[in-house]
Design brief:
single chain; 339 residues; eight-stranded mixed beta sheet; 31% helix; disordered N terminus
Length: 339
């Protein structure tokens, strides 16, 4: 093992393959190393996310890279002629220029399944805690020194309420399945969900978001990717709500117009919001939405459990090992250069 203080990295030397872990938020590499052959060279760095020159320096002769946030631009990839695969230790690959990777013949992989249970659990926990005013009661007791149930807004029985889903993917469907014991009615809009899968999960498919807005007591918006501003959940949806629902977003901050959500929280179209993601990260805590009393935040934490992190890190390393060792059918591809 060699430590290079100039590059702030540790080298584990051996083998004829070089793997670079360019960045990670957990600042340890034991799980990754346990899933990579011991005779491969592994370089563990903490490169600034936007520093292309530093990234090129650590990657210039690498066969593979693991990353969480570093920006893999066309310039970076073109400067690294040996690079064969980038494995993101995350669900998303927003940090990689996928078109450039495809053109340059570089595979891109991710860990798309690693935290689906945790995010679904977080959604269910957020829904129930808001509907029973748990965060407000806790703050009232601890901060205001009040032992008074009357500090809550009007609360209603949860059983029999209607959940509206904007996006009926694996995570949001799992969340409503966790909540089935409350006998919720579930309606959802998702142009990609087959009718038979919707029925199997107790989801009544509707054609428009406005139909969700008309009936929902709880809205779970879980849109992983938007293609244009028109895809955002915005004032068009919030103004169409009829029952002043609570609104949950644990997917992507960019999928919601937060200025419109702020206004909806102020004018009553949305009663309460539970947010794990916002429109900028790091979050701009000076924005008005952070001052509103009817919002519960978690700091992009829905993904987190120690179980999930081990799965993510293991899968990311295994993507690289499977690709470089020729067992490519086991790779979770985002970009497959062979296709």
């Amino acid at each position: 093992m060699i430590y290079d203080p100039d590059l702030d990295l540790i080298l584990f030397v051996g083998g004829d393959m070089k793997i670079v872990i360019s960045d990670c938020s957990w600042n340890s590499y034991d799980v990754e190393k346990a899933n990579i052959p011991s005779d491969w060279e592994v370089v563990c760095a903490q490169v600034d996310h936007t520093d292309e020159d530093a990234l090129i320096e650590v990657l210039k002769d690498a066969d593979a890279a693991m990353s969480e946030y570093c920006h893999y631009t066309r310039r970076v990839m073109e400067a690294c002629p040996n690079l064969k695969i980038i494995s993101d230790s995350s669900m998303g690959t927003d940090n990689v220029d996928l078109e450039a990777a495809k053109e340059l013949g570089i595979a891109v992989a991710n860990a798309p399944r690693y935290c689906i249970h945790e995010v679904a659990e977080h959604i269910a926990a957020m829904v129930l805690s808001i509907l029973r005013y748990i965060p407000g009661y806790d703050a009232s007791v601890k901060q205001d020194k009040l032992w008074d149930f009357g500090v809550a807004p009007k609360l209603y029985r949860i059983e029999g309420m209607t959940i509206g889903l904007i996006g009926c993917g694996r995570i949001s469907t799992m969340a409503v399945n966790y909540l089935k014991g409350f006998n919720f009615r579930v309606v959802g809009v998702d142009p990609y969900l087959p009718e038979e899968i919707a029925k199997a999960n107790g989801i009544e498919l509707v054609k428009t978001r406005e139909e969700v807005a008309e009936v929902a007591d709880i809205v779970i918006s879980h849109i992983p990717v938007i293609k244009s501003e028109d895809d955002k959940v915005d004032a068009r949806f919030f103004n169409a709500t009829k029952k002043s629902p609570i609104f949950i977003n644990m997917a992507r901050g960019a999928s919601v117009n937060y200025d419109d959500l702020t206004e909806a929280l102020k004018n009553g179209h949305i009663r309460w919001a539970g947010l794990d993601v916002v429109d900028t990260e790091p979050a701009d805590l000076s924005k008005e939405i952070f001052t509103l009393p009817n919002v519960t935040f978690s700091p992009h934490a829905a993904f987190y459990s120690e179980t999930a992190l081990v799965e993510c890190r293991s899968q990311s390393a295994q993507n690289i090992v499977n690709y470089l060792s020729g067992d490519k059918s086991k790779v979770f591809y985002v970009v497959d250069p062979a296709k």
